[in-house]
Amino acid sequence: MTNFDGAVARNAGGGPKLELHFSSGWPALTEALKQPGSPLKGFFADLFPNTKTVFQRYKDSVGALVVPASTEALGGGMGTVGGAFDWLVDFLLCPHPDLHLPAVGAGRCGHRMPRALAELAGILATRAPSEDTRGGQDRVSEFDGPHAGTAVDPELLARGCWALALLTELGRGVAIERSPLAAVDPTTVTGHHLLDMASSVALDQLAALRRQAEAVLLPALAGYVGRWAISPTFDGSVLLNADADLIAAGTLVEIKTLLGSKRKDGSRYATLDSQTLFQMIGYVLLDFQDAFKIREIMLFNARYGHVATWPVHDLLSGLAGHPVDLAATRTEFRTFLLSGAKPRAWVRSTPAKPD
Question: What is the pLDDT of residues 77-101, one digit of tens each?
């Protein structure tokens, strides 16, 4: 585990279960940060301009790529691999993660798909999702951690997580016709049909990523005793659609399967970019009332088997170039989100050329 810029601060914090309807003014946090000319990214860049040192230290701390991408077709996109791995980690942390978002995707398919999802939940020895999918909001699973994870057979779990990832994509708005699930007959689909969606190539990827989670992430989290939350949303999520991967006793944990950048010889090396950095900071700032008592950020990149941690105060102060008042910065962020900024007018205007 790499610790940057000071001692690790651990707090046995937590927060209330939040069930929020997201507003339609801003897109999701991750999507907003991707857009060219994003005012949201500009807000973070203005507040936290000193990113170069953090990026360089992160790059220097990471070793070689451990889990390369497959050269064969997966039967889904690279995003599906990441999504399936997120679900797999959820099951390794707690045997009953909330399946609300896949239920939203199943509801979009209609017919027998919601029932098939309930059957899949039974096969995975977890709770069936609620039939209430109002608003499509994420819901949070909270428990006292660390917690023993699932005992489901590893291949069966991987197959189930692949199906959950495909349904989650639909729940997040991916068009059904762009999903591999478009090839499934929703009038006859069963939970076992969903298990068959994962290719052998996809299963190999998930098995390799799981080994890194078990060897690196789970031991790193073993000492974080307190209130844990899987897929937590924040009180600020009503303004900016955002749900994190995990909060473990006051530590925000972001889980990635990024390949990094490519060298001239074709080899890969890990990088930390502004999108990922600002995404993690965004989660911290959206906790307007400090409900989760986030005092540390952890980033796990499974493809490199690497964990990095930053104390929140040290990270924000270093990026800003001066001491940062977290409560005041959260208030400033909330004011920005409510200020009438035009979140869908992404391309900033350019000054007119002189005559």
Answer: 778 999 999 999 999 999 999 999 9
Enumerate helices (H) and strands (E) in the chain, giving the number of each.
Answer: 13, 9
Angle between helices 100-109 and 154-171 (to 10 degrees): 70
Amino acid identity, position 347: V
Question: b vs e for 7-41, b when ≥16 Cβ sit within 10 Å of the residue's Cβ?
Answer: ebebbebbbeebebebeeebbbbeebbeeeebbbb
Q: DSSP H helical segments within the chain, as ranges?
A: 29-34, 39-47, 52-61, 78-93, 100-109, 113-123, 154-171, 191-195, 200-212, 218-221, 274-286, 312-320, 326-337
Q: Helix (H, G, I), strand (E, B), or coil: what is residue 37? A: coil
Cα(255)–Cα(118) distance, rounded to whole angstroms? Answer: 26
Phi, psi of 229 (to 5 degrees): -140, 125
Distance, in Å, from the CA atom of 273 to the CA atom of 15, rounded to the nearest integer, reads: 29
Give the integer Cα–Cα distance in Å for 180 and 197. 8
Nearest to 116 by CA among 189, 202, 21, 9: 189
The residue whose two tokens read 């969606």 is: 197
| pTM as predicted | 0.86
pLDDT at residue 139 in the model: 55
Give per-residue pLDDT as tens, 190-206. Answer: 999 999 999 999 999 99
